[in-house]
C-alpha cells in the first residue's frame, strides 16, 4: 500500500538533522533506582552533530528560561562514533529545553566514567535496585561501577553545576563525579589534596596520558608521570604544612588570579566567584600539558586563558620540541649537538616537523655500557625544577659522582646537576625519559645547572679488521687456483660491463628516483601495496572527478584521503616534479600533501583527511538542510582568502591556483577551510604573466580574461568573488534548476545592485544570515570588488584578508557591470562544459 504522506516521508528522510526539532520538551535531571538504559537509538534524546559526534542524553538539567549551554549526562561518542563514553557534557538547549544542534559548538565532555575503556553500541547503564550504578559493555563485561550497593541510595541527580551524584534520604551525596575528576574542572569544582586532573594521551585518544595536575600538601603542581617524576609547574604555598592545613584549589571565574589556593578552615566557599550565568566555562588539562580555560561566547568555544604561565615563554612545557629537542626562546626546535664539533649524535625524527623531537643517530644499547659517554651541553637547561623532594635522584653529591651514577645505570638518559647554594656539591637528577630541553639565554639563567646527555659511541676496535686479515691468509693458502680465479673474474667483468652498458638508460632513471626519495622535507613515498592496505582495497570512495577518485584510508592512526589518478599520460618525471612543488607548500589554510605513490602506471596522492568534506555540500543543500551560520561562513571566506594570499604573495614562487571553486575547498571538524588541489596551479614569474594556450578551470568560476588568454593569479581573485557570492547566497553561480533569468548568479547580482535590492540574494535558509545583514552586505561589496571585469581593478588577496580582518575598507568606486558579454560568456561556458580540457593537469579534479 502506498503511504498517504509521501511528501512528509521524503521531508523527514531527506532532512535527518531536523528531526530533533520536533522532539518533546525535555528536562530530566534525576533518576530513581531500578532503571536500565541501553546505548542504542531508542534513548530518546539522541542528537548527531555536524562533526559526527553524538549525544544520547539520559539526564539533563536545563534552565527553561535560558537558551544556551546546559549540563547533561549520558552516552557520548566523537567523530567516528565507534566508541562511547558514559559522560557529563555541556550541550545547547533552547528555551523548550530540547537539546539543539547549532552548527557551532559540539558537545563538550567535562567528565567521563570510562575514558580508558570506551564501550560500544548496545552497552548498558544499570542503576540497580540497591543503589549501584554499573556500566557494562555490549558483551556485558563490567566496565565501571560506583560501588555504592547497600548505601541507601535514593536517586541519581545531575546538578546545575555539572556534578553527577548519588544521594540518600537526607539529600547527602553518597558518590559524586566531582570527587573523580578526569581532565576538566567546571566552575565551583574543587580539586582536593591527592586528586589529579590527568590529560588525554593525545588529542585524539581519551586514554590517560603522562601529564597530570595535582594538589599536594604544599601546593599545586603539574608533573610528567615518568620515573623519576618530572615537575613542570610548581606553585608552592608556604606554611601550609606547619599550620597542619590542607590545600585545595577551586575553579572560579576563569583567570589565574582567581584560581587560588585556599586553606580549608579559613575561606568559606561563598568567597568563590563564579562566572555569570550567561557565560559558561570549563578548564581542561590538554595533552600537551597546558591548562586552558574555555568559554562559550555566542559564536562558539573560545580559549580565554592558558592558566599555568611558564617561564621562559612556552619552552618549559615538556613536549614542545619532542624528546631531546631544544626549544629556543622564539619557539624554534633544534637537536642537541656538541660545541665546536661537527659530529652529530642526534637527528630530527621528521625534517618537516622539528617539534616532533630528535633521536640518537646510534641508539643507546644496554648491551654495550662501555660505549656510553656523556655529552656536555652548554647553555641548555631542563624544565624540571630539581630541588623538589619527590623528583630528585641524589642530593649533596659531587658533579662527577652524579655523572658516574648515570653511566652505570642503563636506564639513565641524562645527568642534570645543580649546585646547592654555597657548596661544591649539589642535586643530581637522572631521568629515564628525556623530554624537551631549553636554550638558556644569558638573560634568563634561571637554573645554574649542568646538563649531560648520554650517547652511544661507535666502538674504536671493530671485528672488521680481524676478519679481513684472516681471509687474506686463506687466499694465500689456496694460491693454486688463483690464476683460474683471475681469468674467471676477467670474463665476469666483461659480461657485467656489457650488461651495465645496455642498462645504463634504465639505471639512470632509477637513480633519479632514488635521489628524489632523499630530498629532505618531501612527502613520503608509499608503495601501491601500502596504499591498497591503507584504503582497504579502495573500498570507501569520498568523491570522483575527471582525473580520478578519492578514497578514505588509514595510515596508522592517521586518517587520510587517497586520490587515485586514472588514465594519466604524464611521465613519472613530470609527476614527481609536481609532487615536489606541492609537497613544498605549507600553510594552515592549504590541504597538506602527506605522500604519494608512483609505481608502474599507478599515480596516487595522499592528502590529510578533512572530515566535513567539501564546501559545496554545505552551501548548496544537496544532501542536508543544515544551514551554516554567518560566523562560520565568514570564517570559511577568511580562510580561503588567507590561502590565496599565501599562494599569490607569500610563497617563494608565485602560484596561481586556477581552479578555485567550492569543490576544492575542504572543511575540517571545526569548519576551518583549507584549499586543496594545486594541480592546476602553474608557476608564474614574479613580474610577468604567461600566455596560456589552453583554457583551464571550471565553468562558472572563470574570469573574463580567460577569453583573451592573458592569465595571471588575478583569475583566482575573480573565482574567489564567485565563491563568496555562492557562500552568501547559498546557491551555485550557474544553476540550471532556476528560472531562465536567474540561472546566472553574477548576472542577477548586477541587476539587484542596480535596483538596490542586494539583500534579496542572501541565503534564506535559517535566520542567522539576515540577522547579520549589515556584515553580509559588506562582504558582498568585497565580492563585487573581486568580480571587477578589469583584472587590474581587483584587490590583491592580502588586501582582501585585511578587509576581512577589519583593518581596511572596501573600495567604494566600483564598476557594477560584471557581465558585459553575458550571452557570449554563457554560451562559451556551456561549450566549455562539454569539451573540458582533460589534460590541463593530472593533479586536479573534484573530490
Ligand atoms: C534498544 O534496547 C532496548 C533494550 O535492550 C530494546 O528494547 C530496544 O528495542 C532497542 N532499540 C533499538 C532501536 O535497537
Ligand atoms: C544491538 O542490539 C540489537 C538487538 O537489540 C542488534 O540488532 C544490533 O545489531 C546490535 N548492534 C550492535 C552494533 O551490536
Ligand atoms: C569499584 O570497585 C572496583 C573493584 O573493587 C574498582 O576497580 C573500581 O575502581 C571501583 N569504582 C569506583 C568508581 O571507585
Ligand atoms: C539535585 O541537584 C539540584 C541542582 O544542584 C539541587 O537543587 C537538588 O536539590 C538536587 N536534588 C537532590 C534530590 O539532591
Ligand atoms: C531533598 O531535595 C529535594 C529536591 O530539592 C527536596 O524536595 C527535599 O525536600 C529534600 N529533602 C531533604 C530531606 O532535605
Ligand atoms: C581527548 O581525546 C578525545 C578523543 O579523541 C578528544 O575528543 C578530546 O578533544 C581530547 N581532549 C584533549 C584535551 O585533547
Ligand atoms: C589510545 O591509546 C591507547 C594507549 O596507547 C591504545 O591502547 C588505544 O588503542 C588508543 N585508542 C585509539 C582509539 O587510538
Ligand atoms: C594535623 O591534623 C590532623 C587531623 O586534623 C591530626 O590527626 C594530626 O595529628 C595533626 N598533625 C599535627 C602535626 O598537628
Ligand atoms: C569574570 O572574569 C572576566 C574577565 O576577567 C570579567 O570580565 C567578568 O566580569 C568576571 N565575571 C564575574 C561574574 O566576576
Ligand atoms: C653560552 O653562554 C655564554 C654567555 O652568554 C657565551 O659566552 C657562550 O658563547 C655560550 N656558549 C654557546 C655554546 O653558545
Ligand atoms: C667481535 O669480537 C669479539 C672478540 O673476538 C667478540 O666477543 C664479539 O662478539 C665480536 N662482535 C661481533 C659483532 O662480531
Ligand atoms: C531526540 C531524538 O532525536 N530522538 C531520536 C533518536 O533516534 C530515534 C531513532 O532514530 C528517533 O526515532 C528519535 O526521534
UniProtKB/TrEMBL annotation:
<dbReference type="GO" id="GO:0030246">
    <property type="term" value="F:carbohydrate binding"/>
</dbReference>
<keyword id="KW-0472">Membrane</keyword>
<feature type="domain" description="Apple">
    <location>
        <begin position="366"/>
        <end position="456"/>
    </location>
</feature>
<feature type="signal peptide">
    <location>
        <begin position="1"/>
        <end position="19"/>
    </location>
</feature>
<dbReference type="Pfam" id="PF08276">
    <property type="entry name" value="PAN_2"/>
</dbReference>
<dbReference type="GO" id="GO:0048544">
    <property type="term" value="P:recognition of pollen"/>
</dbReference>
<dbReference type="InterPro" id="IPR001480">
    <property type="entry name" value="Bulb-type_lectin_dom"/>
</dbReference>
<feature type="domain" description="Bulb-type lectin">
    <location>
        <begin position="51"/>
        <end position="179"/>
    </location>
</feature>
<keyword id="KW-0597">Phosphoprotein</keyword>
<keyword id="KW-0430">Lectin</keyword>
<dbReference type="InterPro" id="IPR008271">
    <property type="entry name" value="Ser/Thr_kinase_AS"/>
</dbReference>
<dbReference type="GO" id="GO:0051707">
    <property type="term" value="P:response to other organism"/>
</dbReference>
<dbReference type="InterPro" id="IPR000719">
    <property type="entry name" value="Prot_kinase_dom"/>
</dbReference>
<dbReference type="GO" id="GO:0016020">
    <property type="term" value="C:membrane"/>
</dbReference>
<dbReference type="InterPro" id="IPR051343">
    <property type="entry name" value="G-type_lectin_kinases/EP1-like"/>
</dbReference>
<feature type="binding site">
    <location>
        <position position="563"/>
    </location>
    <ligand>
        <name>ATP</name>
    </ligand>
</feature>
<dbReference type="InterPro" id="IPR011009">
    <property type="entry name" value="Kinase-like_dom_sf"/>
</dbReference>
<dbReference type="InterPro" id="IPR036426">
    <property type="entry name" value="Bulb-type_lectin_dom_sf"/>
</dbReference>
<keyword id="KW-0245">EGF-like domain</keyword>
<dbReference type="InterPro" id="IPR000858">
    <property type="entry name" value="S_locus_glycoprot_dom"/>
</dbReference>
<keyword id="KW-0547">Nucleotide-binding</keyword>
<feature type="domain" description="Protein kinase">
    <location>
        <begin position="536"/>
        <end position="819"/>
    </location>
</feature>
<keyword id="KW-1015">Disulfide bond</keyword>
<keyword id="KW-0067">ATP-binding</keyword>
<keyword id="KW-0732">Signal</keyword>
<comment type="similarity">
    <text>Belongs to the protein kinase superfamily. Ser/Thr protein kinase family.</text>
</comment>
<keyword id="KW-0723">Serine/threonine-protein kinase</keyword>
<dbReference type="Pfam" id="PF00069">
    <property type="entry name" value="Pkinase"/>
</dbReference>
<keyword id="KW-0418">Kinase</keyword>
<dbReference type="Pfam" id="PF01453">
    <property type="entry name" value="B_lectin"/>
</dbReference>
<dbReference type="InterPro" id="IPR003609">
    <property type="entry name" value="Pan_app"/>
</dbReference>
<feature type="transmembrane region" description="Helical">
    <location>
        <begin position="475"/>
        <end position="502"/>
    </location>
</feature>
<keyword id="KW-0325">Glycoprotein</keyword>
<keyword id="KW-0812">Transmembrane</keyword>
<keyword id="KW-0808">Transferase</keyword>
<dbReference type="InterPro" id="IPR017441">
    <property type="entry name" value="Protein_kinase_ATP_BS"/>
</dbReference>
<dbReference type="GO" id="GO:0004674">
    <property type="term" value="F:protein serine/threonine kinase activity"/>
</dbReference>
<dbReference type="InterPro" id="IPR024171">
    <property type="entry name" value="SRK-like_kinase"/>
</dbReference>
<keyword id="KW-0675">Receptor</keyword>
<keyword id="KW-1133">Transmembrane helix</keyword>
<dbReference type="Pfam" id="PF00954">
    <property type="entry name" value="S_locus_glycop"/>
</dbReference>
<dbReference type="GO" id="GO:0005524">
    <property type="term" value="F:ATP binding"/>
</dbReference>
Amino acid at each position: 500500500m502506498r503511504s498517504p504522506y509521501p511528501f512528509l516521508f521524503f521531508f523527514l528522510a531527506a532532512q535527518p538533522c531536523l528531526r530533533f526539532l520536533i522532539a518533546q520538551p525535555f528536562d530530566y535531571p534525576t533518576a530513581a533506582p531500578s532503571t536500565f538504559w541501553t546505548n542504542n537509538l531508542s534513548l530518546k534524546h539522541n542528537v548527531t552533530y555536524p562533526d559526527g559526534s553524538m549525544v544520547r542524553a539520559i539526564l539533563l538539567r536545563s534552565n527553561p528560561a535560558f537558551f544556551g549551554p546546559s549540563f547533561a549526562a549520558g552516552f557520548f561518542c566523537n567523530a567516528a562514533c565507534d566508541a562511547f563514553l558514559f559522560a557529563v557534557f555541556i550541550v545547547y538547549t533552547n528555551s523548550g529545553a530540547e537539546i539543539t544542534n547549532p552548527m557551532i559548538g559540539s558537545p563538550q565532555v567535562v567528565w567521563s566514567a570510562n575514558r580508558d575503556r570506551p564501550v560500544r553500541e548496545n552497552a548498558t547503564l544499570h542503576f540497580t535496585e540497591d543503589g549501584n550504578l554499573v556500566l557494562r559493555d555490549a558483551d556485558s563485561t563490567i566496565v565501571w561501577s560506583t560501588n555504592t550497593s547497600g548505601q541507601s541510595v535514593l536517586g541519581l541527580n545531575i546538578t546545575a553545576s555539572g556534578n553527577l551524584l548519588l544521594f540518600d534520604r537526607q539529600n547527602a551525596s553518597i558518590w559524586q563525579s566531582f570527587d573523580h575528576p578526569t581532565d576538566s574542572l567546571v566552575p565551583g569544582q574543587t580539586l582536593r589534596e591527592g586528586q589529579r586532573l590527568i590529560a588525554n594521551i593525545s588529542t585524539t585518544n581519551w586514554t590517560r596520558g603522562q601529564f597530570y595536575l595535582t594538589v599536594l600538601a604544599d601546593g599545586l603542581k603539574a608533573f610528567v608521570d615518568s620515573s623519576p617524576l618530572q615537575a613542570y609547574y610548581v606553585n608552592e604555598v608556604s606554611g601550609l604544612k606547619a599550620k597542619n592545613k590542607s590545600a585545595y584549589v577551586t575553579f572560579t571565574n576563569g583567570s589565574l588570579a582567581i584560581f587560588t589556593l585556599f586553606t580549608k578552615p579559613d575561606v568559606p566557599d561563598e568567597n568563590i566567584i563564579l562566572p555569570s550565568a550567561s557565560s559558561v566555562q570549563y578548564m581542561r588539562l590538554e595533552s600537551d600539558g597546558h591548562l586552558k580555560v574555555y568559554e562559550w561566547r555566542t559564536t562558539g568555544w573560545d580559549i580565554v586563558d592558558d592558566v599555568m604561565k611558564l617561564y621562559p615563554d612556552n619552552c618549559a612545557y615538556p613536549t614542545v620540541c619532542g624528546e631531546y629537542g631544544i626549544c629556543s626562546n622564539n619557539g624554534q626546535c633544534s637537536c642537541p649537538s656538541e660545541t665546536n664539533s661537527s659530529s652529530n649524535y642526534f637527528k630530527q625524527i621528521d625534517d618537516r616537523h622539528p617539534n616532533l623531537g630528535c633521536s640518537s643517530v646510534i641508539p643507546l644499547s644496554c648491551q654495550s655500557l662501555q660505549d656510553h659517554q656523556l655529552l656536555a651541553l652548554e647553555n641548555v637547561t631542563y624544565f624540571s625544577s630539581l630541588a623538589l623532594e619527590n623528583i630528585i635522584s641524589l642530593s649533596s653529591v659531587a658533579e662527577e659522582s652524579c655523572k658516574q651514577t648515570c653511566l652505570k645505570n642503563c636506564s639513565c638518559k641524562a645527568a642534570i646537576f645543580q649546585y646547592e647554594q654555597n657548596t661544591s656539591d649539589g642535586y643530581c637528577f637522572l631521568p629515564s625519559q628525556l623530554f624537551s630541553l631549553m636554550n638558556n639565554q644569558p638573560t634568563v639563567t634561571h637554573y645554574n645547572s649542568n646538563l649531560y646527555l648520554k650517547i652511544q659511541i661507535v666502538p674504536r676496535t671493530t671485528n672488521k679488521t680481524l676478519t679481513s686479515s684472516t681471509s687474506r691468509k686463506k687466499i694465500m693458502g689456496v694460491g693454486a687456483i688463483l690464476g683460474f680465479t683471475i681469468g674467471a673474474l676477467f670474463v665476469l667483468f666483461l659480461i657485467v660491463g656489457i650488461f651495465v652498458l645496455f642498462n645504463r638508460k634504465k639505471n639512470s632513471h632509477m637513480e633519479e628516483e632514488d635521489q628524489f626519495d632523499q630530498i629532505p622535507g618531501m612527502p613520503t613515498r608509499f608503495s601501491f601495496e601500502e596504499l591498497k592496505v591503507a584504503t582497504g582495497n579502495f573500498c570507501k570512495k569520498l568523491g570522483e572527478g575527471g582525473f580520478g577518485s578519492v578514497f578514505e584510508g588509514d595510515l596508522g592512526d592517521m586518517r587520510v584521503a587517497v586520490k587515485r589518478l586514472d588514465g594519466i599520460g604524464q611521465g613519472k618525471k613530470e609527476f614527481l616534479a609536481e609532487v615536489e612543488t606541492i609537497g613544498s607548500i605549507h600553510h594552515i589554510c592549504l590541504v597538506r600533501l602527506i605522500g604519494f605513490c608512483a609505481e608502474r602506471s599507478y599515480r596516487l596522492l595522499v592528502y590529510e583527511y578533512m572530515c566535513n568534506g567539501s564546501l559545496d555540500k554545505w552551501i548548496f543543500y544537496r544532501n542536508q538542510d543544515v544551514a551554516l551560520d554567518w560566523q562560520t561562513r565568514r570564517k570559511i571566506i577568511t580562510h580561503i582568502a588567507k590561502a590565496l594570499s599565501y599562494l599569490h604573495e607569500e610563497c617563494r614562487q608565485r602560484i596561481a591556483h586556477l581552479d578555485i571553486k567550492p569543490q576544492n575547498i575542504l572543511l575540517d571538524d571545526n569548519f576551518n577551510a583549507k584549499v586543496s588541489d594545486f594541480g592546476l596551479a602553474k608557476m608564474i614569474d614574479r613580474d610577468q604573466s604567461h600566455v596560456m594556450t589552453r583554457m583551464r578551470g571550471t565553468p562558472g568560476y572563470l574570469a573574463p580574461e580567460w577569453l583573451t588568454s592573458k592569465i595571471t593569479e588575478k583569475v583566482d581573485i575573480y573565482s574567489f568573488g564567485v565563491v563568496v557570492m555562492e557562500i552568501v547566497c547559498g546557491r551555485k553561480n550557474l544553476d540550471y534548476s532556476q528560472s531562465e533569468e536567474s540561472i546566472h548568479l553574477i548576472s542577477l547580482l548586477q541587476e539587484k545592485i542596480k535596483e538596490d535590492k542586494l539583500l534579496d540574494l542572501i541565503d534564506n535558509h535559517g535566520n542567522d544570515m539576515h540577522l547579520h545583514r549589515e556584515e553580509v552586505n559588506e562582504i558582498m561589496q568585497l565580492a563585487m570588488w573581486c568580480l571587477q571585469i578589469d583584472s587590474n581593478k581587483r584587490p590583491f588577496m592580502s588586501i582582501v584578508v585585511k578587509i576581512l580582518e577589519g583593518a581596511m575598507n572596501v573600495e567604494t568606486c566600483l564598476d557594477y557591470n560584471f557581465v558585459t558579454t553575458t550571452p557570449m560568456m554563457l554560451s562559451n561556458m556551456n561549450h566549455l562544459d562539454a569539451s573540458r580540457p582533460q589534460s590541463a593537469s593530472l593533479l586536479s579534479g573534484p573530490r
